[in-house]
Design goal:
- The complex is a heterodimer of chains A (about 550) and B (about 180).
- By secondary structure, chain A is α+β, with helices and mostly antiparallel strands.
- Chain A is about 45% helix and about 15% strand.
- Among the domains of chain A are: about 100 residues, no CATH class; about 100 residues, Sandwich (Immunoglobulin-like), CATH 2.60.40.
- Chain A is elongated, with a radius of gyration of 38 Å.
- Classes of the chains: A alpha+beta (about 550), B alpha+beta (about 180).
């Protein structure tokens, strides 16, 4: 067994905690517990073994690897794998590790970089060093009940403000924030379609537009109307079902996955680290803290996030963005991003050559044009990493910095995850317009594809001798029309309409006027035909099938009967 | 002084000169005073500190949204006495072990972490009256905690042996920064 002395320490630490000798859990209090054990409890053989490891850099590195890969997995605390980065960072401050070279990089960082915060030094007008690396690690909640949900390491800040950023992150994982994000993504967010499918779907929507235009403006399709409308309905329905199913599936996945990550974050104590020993005044680092809180939740549960395409994409991009993105903005618990003093922060980003993108609140100074103006008057003071044989060529005098303005943290998720897609936005607008038209035309299509049964003529008849009422027992009056053919009366056609009032009925009202050239003197001569109507929005097609006929005499006597 | 001189004469001359320049040896009273704890040397100062310490009423108030679980601990009233200035700074006892007549204790000062490397800690009993019971040095460890390792009087060792870190502590602290070369 390797490094038995560390197991001995861990056992002492856990037992001391169980017996009530130490207040903080073995994980949160690892540095203090180690110091105590090393100073007073370690045996001579333990000390000799530790000294043997300390002698060589290789052995030290071997211990660090063992601790991160082996011990952190095996020595679980509260059924959770131990965060090796945190343990290494804590141990790096106490003897003898504070002199070990292998612990060097853990003394100032967790080595879990996230989005940088822009925190101005006192009286700084915006320097490269004001862009500060922020790291976040979630630990199982401290057994010490007086411990807060957020702890800061390497800086001091109002815990209330840090907790607000944490709550905003929780809201974004599974709350109002996520609803806002899903709304934004639905409107203009990229979908996980392969390029070919995306083109096909857009072509499908364009085909629907073409069919609608054909039906509205083209020649009367006659007998082919039903075929046209069937194709139109089928195509539109399949596109809608595809879009809704994909969006719903991804949305539900994101909600469920976010729920699990939220639970993890709620049950954790979020440790935020920012070097420099600053006492942070104000809440403008809230946006960066919030995004890093999300990242911390992902780092603790990377497999959970992979179940959701939306979260997986966001966190993958966030990992890349952590190298060269910075953020500033005050967030509230619901995720709204509030204004900050921006110009010096923009200048700090411009002076820091590592920063390519900055997330800002929605304010005028955050516009790319405003940044270009600041860039024109700002000299870069940072140091670019150079290859040994490279000679710098000064072809570009001005730094470019892309800004992403946000009113809500959901917009910063859209920006970091590169979800915004103009193609998708255009397709969605088209789909929305087409769907609105189709919703209006659905009844017309239904009357063609699924015509109602032929209605019977019923009461009431017309109380006036100058009108003929053809009342029908149907619930779909728009599907029918009545036509009078008579040698005595002028031939007329009337739509069937639902009338209210005392004589409420579904009927066609035909005004009776004498024919100019009567072929008979029998005023009861004539036939009333019931026809099917064929329409598409404002377009009236040629009359459809005649489904019933009634002698005029029968209809005029109906009232009296 | 003669140029030619043997080594014994030279040593004799040097000793005589050193004796002539040396300060006077402290009197027995002075030595006893130096050995006395500070509260006996400056009883008025101690009385003032104790009055201030007695006025500190301290306990955690839980106004959290969830029911706190696990260890809670109890804050220990502490008074940092620097020259004429006195400041209250509650201490949290993080580790407590009484074994083989020795007290090993670690505590943290809140809310602002201190950077003093060494404190002289006076343990002042809670009951029956505030009186000094122990003095020890607390050294700052690498992670912002202060460490005390001191031999206890037999009666204190017996009384504190069963004490847990989560129990209310039977003492308060008066902390006086000490030179770090001690």
């Amino acid at each position: 067994m390797q490094f038995v002395w560390f197991w001995t320490f861990w056992h002492w630490s856990t037992e001391s905690f169980r017996s009530g000798a130490v207040l903080r859990s073995p994980l949160q209090g690892v540095a203090g517990h180690w110091d105590e054990w090393y100073q007073h409890e370690a045996s001579e053989s333990d000390r000799r073994a530790i000294a043997a490891v300390a002698r060589g850099g290789f052995e030290q590195r071997r211990f660090v690897c063992w601790l991160a890969r082996r011990w952190a997995r095996e020595a679980r605390w509260r059924n959770e794998m131990l965060p090796a980065r945190f343990v290494l960072a804590q141990l790096s401050r106490v003897a003898p590790f504070d002199n070990w070279t292998a612990f060097e990089k853990y003394r100032s960082a967790y080595t879990a970089p996230g989005i940088s915060a822009i925190v101005l030094d006192q009286e700084s007008a915006g320097e490269a060093a004001d862009v500060r690396r922020v790291e976040a690690i979630p630990l199982p909640l401290d057994e010490d009940a007086a411990a807060g949900n957020v702890a800061c390491d390497g800086f001091h800040a109002d815990i209330g403000e840090l907790n607000t950023a944490r709550r905003a992150a929780i809201s974004l994982l599974n709350g109002k924030g996520l609803i806002v994000f899903l709304g934004l993504w639905l409107v203009a967010g990229i979908r996980p379609y392969p390029r070919v499918l995306r083109v096909l779907l857009t072509a499908g929507w364009l085909a629907v537009v073409g069919l609608i235009a054909r039906l509205l403006l083209g020649s009367d399709p006659g007998a082919q109307l039903a075929t046209f409308e069937a194709i139109l309905l089928g195509l539109w329905a399949s596109l809608v079902v595809t879009a809704v199913a994909v969006a719903a599936a991804l949305g539900v996945d994101a909600w469920r996955t976010g729920g699990e990550l939220k639970k993890k974050l709620e049950e954790s104590q979020l440790h935020l680290r920012m070097s420099g020993g600053l006492s942070v005044q104000g809440g403008s680092a809230g946006l960066a803290f919030c995004l890093n809180g999300l990242f911390a939740a992902y780092r603790s549960r990377p497999r959970v996030a992979s179940r959701s395409w939306l979260w997986e994409r966001f966190f993958r991009r966030l990992r890349t963005a952590s190298q060269n993105w910075a953020a500033t903005g005050i967030v509230d618990a619901d995720g709204s991003v509030d204004h900050v003093v921006l110009e010096p922060k923009i200048r700090a980003c411009l002076r820091n050559p590592n920063v390519t993108d900055v997330l800002t609140p929605w304010q005028a100074e955050g516009k790319n044009s405003a940044i270009a103006r600041v860039a024109a008057t700002t000299r870069s003071t940072g140091h670019m990493a150079q290859h040994a044989r490279m000679v710098p060529g000064f072809a570009s005098a001005q730094r470019t910095l892309r800004s992403h303005r946000c009113r809500h943290i959901a917009q910063s998720v859209m920006a970091v995850g590169e979800f915004a897609s103009k193609w998708q936005l255009a397709t969605n607008m088209l789909a929305l317009a087409v769907t609105a038209v189709m919703a209006l035309a659905l009844n017309d299509i239904r009357n063609v594809l699924q015509p109602p049964a032929a209605p019977r003529v019923v009461l009431p008849g017309s109380p006036s001798p100058y009108y003929l009422w053809v009342s029908l027992d149907t619930k779909r009056p728009e599907a029918f029309r009545a036509q009078l053919e008579s040698g005595f009366w002028s031939n007329r056609r009337a739509d069937v309409v639902a009338y209210g009032g005392a004589d409420a009925s579904v009927r066609a009202e035909i005004r009776l006027t004498r024919h100019g050239r009567q072929s008979t003197i029998d005023e009861e001569n004539g036939t009333v035909w019931i026809e099917r109507r064929q329409t598409f929005l404002t377009r009236e097609f040629r009359a459809g099938e005649r489904i019933a006929s009634y002698p005029l005499a029968h209809l005029t006597n109906l009232h009296h009967d | 002084m003669k140029r030619a001189m043997d080594i014994e004469t030279l040593l004799q001359w040097r000793r005589e000169r050193a004796e002539a320049e040396a300060p006077q040896a402290p009197s027995g009273v002075r030595l006893l005073k130096l050995l006395s704890p500070w509260w006996e040397v400056s009883p008025d100062r101690f009385a003032a500190s104790v009055r201030r310490l007695a006025s500190i009423q301290l306990s955690f108030g839980y106004a959290m949204s969830h029911v706190p679980q696990g260890h809670r601990g109890h804050p220990v009233a502490a008074l940092i006495s620097e020259g004429d200035e006195e400041r209250e700074s509650p201490a949290r006892v993080l580790y407590l072990s009484v074994r083989d007549g020795r007290l090993r204790l670690r505590f943290q000062l809140a809310p602002i972490p201190r950077t003093d490397r060494l404190f002289e800690v006076t343990f002042v009993s809670e009951q029956p009256a505030l009186r000094p019971i122990l003095a020890a040095y607390a050294a700052l460890s690498g992670d912002g905690e202060y460490r005390v390792d001191v031999e206890l009087p037999r009666e204190l060792a017996a009384a504190w042996e069963s004490l847990k870190v989560t129990d209310p502590m039977p003492f308060r602290f008066i902390l006086r920064p000490a030179p770090s070369n001690m």
